[in-house]
Amino acid sequence: MILPGFVYFVIFKYFPMGGLIISFQDYQPYLGIKDSPWVGFKHFIRLFTEPTFAMLLSNTLILFALELIIFFPIPIILALMLNEVRHKMFKNSIQTIVYIPHFMSWVIIVSITYVFLSVDGGVVNEMIAAFGGNKISFLTSPEWLRPMYILQIIWKEAGWSTIIYLAAITVVDTQLYEAADMDGASRLRKMWHVTLPAIRPVIITLLILKIGSTLELGFEHMYLLLNSLNREVGEIFDTYIFTAGLKNGQLSFSTTVGLFKGLVGLILVIIANKLAKKFGEDGVY
Amino acid sequence: MKFRYAKLIALSICGSLLLSACGGENAEPQTNADGKPIISWLNILHSASPPTDTVLNKIEELTNTDIQFSWIPDASKEERLNTSLASGSLADIVSLTILENSSVRNALKAGVFWEVSPYLDEFPNLKEISADMRNSASIDGKLYGIPMQKQVSRNGVIIRKDWLDKVGLPIPKTTAELMEVAKAFTEQDPDGNGTKDTTGFIDRSDLVFGAFKTLGSYFGTPSGWAVSEDGKVTPEFESEGYVKAMDYMKELYNNGYINQDFAVTAKKDQQEGFAQGKAGIYVGALFDSKNLLNLAKGVQDDMDLIMVNDITSTGKESDRAIWSTSNGVGGLLAFPKSEVKDEAELKQVLKFMDDLMSEEIYTLMTYGIKDVHYSLEGNAATITDTKLWEQEVQPFSSSRPNENGYDIHDSDPLRVESDRLIQENTKYAVLNPMYSLESATFSEQGSELQKMITDATYKYILGKLDLQGFQDAVQTWRKSGGDKIITEYEAAYQAVQNQ
Fold first, then answer.
1. Which of A195, B234, B277, B371 is the least buried, fewest Cβ under 10 Å from its Cβ?
2. B114 vs A51, more confident
């Protein structure tokens, strides 16, 4: 039964990798890979010497760090809290409510944000004005981009990401809880000493996977938020690849950027996996 | 078991081979069941949805073809055209409206499309395309498609006349007077609802087709590039006019005379905002006035619009100017060699183009079918059902190869007036001297470099960058490739002068 997966990976993952070769060419689609001129490391040199490179790298890493530090623990906390809710109906309805945003596309979420945050007639700004404050141009201020970005991710994905933790929690041996009860542990203690250690392997695995997609922050989301005024903090590798490659047609150059991005991700996964093993966890491979 | 797997793998490989084979070969000129030649057309859609078949059938009947459209929404034309070029999934006719885009330019230069200049004179309507137009639309002296002939410059200022009367101001003739109007519209409650909820200008996040470039013209900014007498080339953003226009926008922004979110406002929201009475000054294409009025029906019924195209910063008639970015070339209708296989097929497509330029089909693509979409009195056409026209005709109106020199015209007074003003603009148009010249660096990096300037301009207007900061950005632009572009343009300009 390995075949469907195998075929999928060959056709959609390994075969297209051959295309990476165009990052060493000045690829012209009408000439094809065979006849396009070879240019060696020209595009790599351009990538590393362009003033945008430092900006892209730092923006990507900062956003990733924020996601890891702020967003990553939230589903775990949420799952632990949901697990403590004893009233079944109440628990289910909460779960449903926090799942819903996951099914909305980024376009919708960003549009909603625009409606709320715009300066002329935005709900939030109207409220600030009503309380005598100065209106804030959230959408065009570089300093508001990152908080907005993270909050949107939390709102959209936090609920959905709890699923896997909740599933992991359900398989925790009930005898452990009973034993803890016997020892007179409070609910908080049980959460800390029983539930959390039980789901630790799941957390570690997800963390490594997350680190693997470091530089993959989600193109669509950021692209919708970008504008001329917040580009200095918002332009990330994904959006840059899109504008350089698809809008301006520099296929070779954007392939180079993509290749670099992939390599960084690969290195980070290897490091994270090594670290996990060092601390006695299983890792992902 | 093993055998079955092998079969599956073989099957899937065959499948992918078959798929790739489909893309390339279709050697025979295709005809439909009635024997009419099939002409496919990759076209840009400027309205909300593709047209219904009513007008299309009529065009097919008149040109004796079977037209198959693939519509690309205007908002995503860059990425869609680029992916089509890269993957070779083109059509017999491709509407290339973004000639300044680097990959489109490269494709043209690489010979992906037929060069048409040797054939034009064989067709009565195509023959009429002027030498000037052919030159402007050429790249390296070669014409790679039928130029879409548009007006040279169609921009101006649209103001709410009813609001002007209310605040008691005359129609502005100078930029200072325009500022007065913006101030009055913001502060004197022109809609009379008792609250200060209006602004003067309403603009969108577009430095070219929005207010900025038109205001720039009033301050004497060149269009794209300036060439001095001794052949020195400088970009528009190094001119005095550019800075003055930025300062003007900055003043509007700081005083709240413009919607504060203009840097992130889409065109649709801008127009809707205007129609809802949020602002009284709109800068854009003059013929937008009619659309604005249509949008405002039932929302702002007392809206009365006036168009102004003679504003200057000095008040002197001799300083009148209005930009033209592409010198009247709206793009190319190009024919890829991969789809149009041989000369015979090319002539067939050119014949079709020639037919499209006839008065009959022009009328069809502009106004629709007589007594269905419009009524005719003399040469004045009145659109009888705007909704129906928008659905069935409007998408075609931006696909016309030529928009000039036809007898039939719209009877709507606003439209007649905007046509007149656009015609008048031609006299004052500031052309882009580099439009048909070549710079390899501009082709490769131009759009990317322009982003630096666009960002810096917005930041300056919103007060996040001072003049020094803006000039630093220009220096970065020069260092990152701008200097090279200038040298290449100077060489290209010299070469043309010496001819």
1. B371
2. B114
Q: Which residues contact A268 (CB under 8 A, 6 or more apart)?
A: A211, A212, A214
What distance in Å separates the CA atoms of residue B394 and residue B368, rounded to the nearest whole number?
Answer: 9
φ, ψ for residue B375, nearest 5 deg: -120, 155
Indicate yes or no: CB of A228 within 8 angstroms of CB of B447.
no
Phi, psi of B156, deg, nearest 5: -175, -170
Residue B202, strand partner residues: B282
Interface ipTM = 0.80
The answer to whether A120 contacts B261, with C-beta atoms less than 8 Å apart, is yes
What is the identity of the amino acid at A23?
Answer: S
Answer yes or no: are the C-beta atoms of B219 and B248 closer than 8 Å.
yes
Is residue B425 pLDDT above 80, yes or no?
yes
Confidence at B27, pLDDT banded by 50, 70, 90:
very low
Integer CA distances (angstroms), B419 to B80, B379, B397, in order: 32, 15, 15
CA nearest neighbour of B95 among B342, B352, B335, B324: B335
| Closest by Cβ to B261, choosing from A118, A228, A247 | A118
B442 touching chain A per CB within 8 A = no
First-last CA distance in chain B: 75
Q: What is the reported pTM?
A: 0.84
Among the partner residues B16, B205, B464, nearest to A227 by beta-carbon distance:
B205
Q: How many residues does chain A have?
A: 285
B contacts of A120 (beta carbons < 8 Å)? 199, 259-261, 278
Q: What is the mean pLDDT of residues B401-419?
A: 89
Q: Which of B458, B321, B99 is nearest to A227 (CA)?
A: B458
How would you classify residue A184: left for phi > 0, otherwise alpha for psi between -120 and 50, otherwise beta?
Answer: left
Phi, then psi, of A150 in degrees rounded to 5:
-65, -45
Cβ contact A229–B104 (<8 Å) = no
